[in-house]
Amino acid sequence: MKIIKGLYIGILLFLNTALIGLELYKNTIRDQWAEGSVIGEEAYYQLQQLHGVTNFITLLLTFLILGGALGLVLWKKKELIKPQIIATLGISLLFYVTALITALITDAPRGNLSQHVHSMTGAVAVILIFLLISRYFNRNERKVRGLIH
Question: Quick one: signal sequence residues (predicted)?
Answer without folding.
Answer: none
